[in-house]
Structure formats: C-alpha cells, structure tokens
C-alpha cells in the first residue's frame, strides 16, 4: 500500500492522503477581496485529489499585504468574498481546506511579480511598512516603522480577528505564516530583529511575539480547528535564524498546542545563499520531525511521485507539500496515484477519463452511458 496515499489526521481533521497543496500567492484580489480568479484557481486545485488545500497567504490587515492585489481577511467584505468562493468549491469537492494567515511586515507594499515586484510608493497606492526594527529588507528600501506596544497589540488582534473569520467560514484548519522573511519571521531572526526590549535580543525574547500571536489565535477558535505554523528553518545567512533555533521554536509551539509545522526556508535576507536542488529542504523537516514528533509538512522541489513516497515511507515527513509543481500539473495526485498503484478521489464528471489500464484509480466507480 502506498504510504503517500494513506490517510492522516490533523486533530479532528482527516486527510485522505499526505499530499498538501502549499499556499501560493495569486496577486489577483481587489481590496483584499477574493475574485473570480480565486474561484477558478481554487476550484481547479480542489479537484486535484490532494489531501489538503491551503489557501494562499491571506493578510490580516490591509498593511499586511505583500502587494495591493493580495488576498485579505480583515473585514466583512473580504470575508463575504471568500465565502462566495468557498461555497462554490465545496459544492463540488470534499477536499479539506486550510488558510494561511499572514502579515508581510517590511516586505509589504510591493508590485506583483509580473509587474516587476518593486516597491509601491504611497502615491501609487502603497503604504508605510512595519517591522520589529526599523531595518529595511533591501539596503535602498525606505525603513519600516518599528512596532511599538500599541502596534504589537494591534497585530495580535488582527491575527485573532482573522482566525475567528476563518472559523466562521467553516475552514478546516489555519496555518500561521512565520516564514519567508515576513513579519513573524522578522521577529524570530536576529538579522531583522534588533530590539532592546522584551521582544528582542535573546532567542527567548525573539520568540515571544510569534508565540503570543499563536497563543491568542489558539484561544480564539475551538480546539477542534487545528492551527499549525509555517517556518523558515534557516535564513541561509551566517548569524541568522537557523535549524537549532527552529527546533527550540517548534518545541515551544508544540507545548502550546500547535497541530503541525510546515518547514520551508529562506526569504529573510538578500544575502541568503540557498543550496537549491531536488529535496533541498527535506533534511530540515526531517530534523525537526525527529526532534519534536510534530506532524510535519516538507516542501521544495519534490516533483516525482516515487520521491514523495520515499519521503513519507522513510519517516522524513508526514506530508509532502507541492506548490509550483501542482500549478504546472494540477492533476499531479492523479498521476502519482497511477504510478504508485494507489487510488485517488476524482469528481464523477471526470470519471470517464480514467485510463483503461488504471481501472481502479478513482476507486469503485460505476457509470453507464447510452
């Protein structure tokens, strides 16, 4: 039996298999509101046969968006727009759906990648960014505003409010974005956090605010709704955030009821030197899983079904995340199941496409056509 296609439980949520669609920004919202693009995009991925679909980084306040076209969940309008999309998706798919709640911090107020990805100034619809310290991401960027006590409290409440809206929408789980150089990662790394108060300096202090956000969100929604965290396990910069600190952070999250950890890396500094190659982040996830026992998602250049199967079978991770690969091949789970001799869910409208040599691919299906 394929281990990749075996079920897995995140608390009360049971995934039909270990394939996770990782969050991928679409830069296609209007004032934070999900659009028809999201309906088509998420509807397509919801029919992929994956075990879990995580909605893209969703800003908890307008200033938390990476770009002016980012998805948000901070108002009745953004909630209603996403509800419309989810209603349509759930009509035709039973895939568990999570949402990644995020704040971009000092990396906010930029253009979409296909528009160059540069900073968007206030005259063009951008905004003043915020961060733990007044240190820009790029040397020539305007400095972000260092968050004061009231700003920190506002951030916590923004994450809590978004978590409550996610629960109201009937989403199955929440992932907190603490990776890729965005706000919560900025607090963790000594490269971006040079505060001299209780939120800076020692590792304990640098973890304090991200942990406070997690605790507040965990208290705001029922325990039946799993909350996990995505981290960058290393900055890939000497003197920055690293795997040893990530293990300590993961244990602190675990003690507070974290349901899973999604292990990525990098994104905090333009000085990063990432050894990109197939499965380059899998050892990071494997180390954290071995140290903590937390349900672990690994991601990063995992493209072949046989490799994903081996990662699960060898105990390097509990789930395998796909991002760009599933954009390229939205039926990757179908093709993987065919290779591994497994079964995968497909909508009945597509049953006729089951290959003749794969008569059990979509399970015990029966249909008749005149």
Task: Describe this structure as you would to a colleague.
The strands form three sheets. The protein has an eight-stranded parallel beta barrel, surrounded by six helices. The chain has helices spanning 36-46, 76-92, 149-168, 183-188, 203-220, 243-255, 282-292, 305-313, 324-328, 332-340; strands at residues 8-10, 13-15, 19-21, 52-59, 97-102, 130-131, 145-146, 173-178, 227-232, 261-264, 296-299, 319-322. The model has no long low-confidence stretch (mean pLDDT 97). The chain has ten helices and twelve strands. The protein is 32% helix and 14% strand. The chain is globular, with a radius of gyration of 20 Å.
The largest sheet, given as strand count, sense and whether it forms a barrel, is: 8 strands, parallel, barrel
Distance between the termini: 36 Å
Q: Categorize the overall geometry.
A: globular
Taken as a percent bin, the fraction of beta residues is 5-15%
- The amount of helix comes to 25-40%
- Report mean pLDDT, rounded to a whole number: 97
Question: What is the element string, with H for helices and E for strands?
Answer: EEEHEHEEEHEHHEHEHEHEHH
Keywords:
370 residues; alpha/beta; eight-stranded parallel beta barrel; two-stranded antiparallel ribbon; 10 helices; globular
Write a short abstract of this structure.
The protein has 370 residues and is α/β, with parallel strands linked by helices. It has helices at 36-46, 76-92, 149-168, 183-188, 203-220, 243-255, 282-292, 305-313, 324-328, 332-340; strands at 8-10, 13-15, 19-21, 52-59, 97-102, 130-131, 145-146, 173-178, 227-232, 261-264, 296-299, 319-322.
């Amino acid at each position: 039996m394929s281990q990749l296609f075996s079920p897995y439980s995140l608390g009360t949520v049971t995934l039909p298999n270990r394939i996770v669609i990782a969050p991928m920004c679409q830069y296609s919202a209007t004032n934070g509101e999900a659009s028809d693009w999201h309906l088509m995009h998420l509807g397509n991925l919801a029919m992929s046969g994956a075990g879990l679909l995580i909605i893209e980084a969703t800003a908890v306040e307008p200033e938390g968006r990476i770009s002016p076209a980012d998805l948000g969940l901070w108002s009745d309008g953004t909630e209603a727009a996403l509800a419309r999309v989810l209603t349509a998706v759930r009509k035709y798919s039973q895939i568990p759906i999570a949402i990644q709640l995020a704040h971009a911090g000092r990396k906010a107020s930029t253009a979409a990648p296909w528009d160059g990805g540069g900073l968007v100034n206030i005259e063009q619809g951008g905004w003043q960014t915020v961060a733990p310290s007044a240190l820009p991401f790029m040397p020539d960027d305007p400095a972000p505003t260092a968050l004061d006590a009231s700003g920190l409290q506002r951030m916590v409440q923004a994450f809590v409010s978004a978590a409550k809206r996610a629960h109201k929408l009937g989403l199955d789980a929440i992932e907190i974005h603490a990776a890729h150089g965005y706000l919560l990662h900025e607090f963790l790394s000594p490269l971006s956090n040079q505060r001299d108060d209780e939120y800076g300096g020692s590792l304990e202090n640098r973890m304090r605010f991200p942990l406070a956000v997690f605790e507040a969100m965990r208290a705001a929604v029922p325990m039946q709704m799993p909350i996990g965290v995505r981290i960058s396990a290393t900055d890939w910069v000497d003197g920055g955030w690293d795997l040893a600190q990530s293990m300590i952070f993961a244990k602190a999250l675990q003690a507070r009821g974290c349901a899973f950890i999604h292990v990525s890396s990098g994104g905090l500094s333009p000085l990063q030197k990432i050894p990109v190659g197939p499965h380059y982040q899998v050892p990071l996830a494997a180390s954290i899983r071995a140290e903590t026992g937390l349900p672990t998602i690994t991601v990063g250049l995992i493209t072949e079904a046989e490799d994903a199967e081996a990662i699960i079978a060898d105990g390097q991770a509990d789930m395998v995340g796909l991002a760009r690969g599933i954009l390229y091949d939205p039926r990757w789970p179908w093709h993987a199941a065919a290779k591994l001799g497994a079964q995968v869910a497909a909508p009945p409208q597509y049953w006729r496409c089951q290959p003749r040599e794969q008569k059990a691919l979509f399970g015990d299906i029966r249909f008749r056509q005149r």
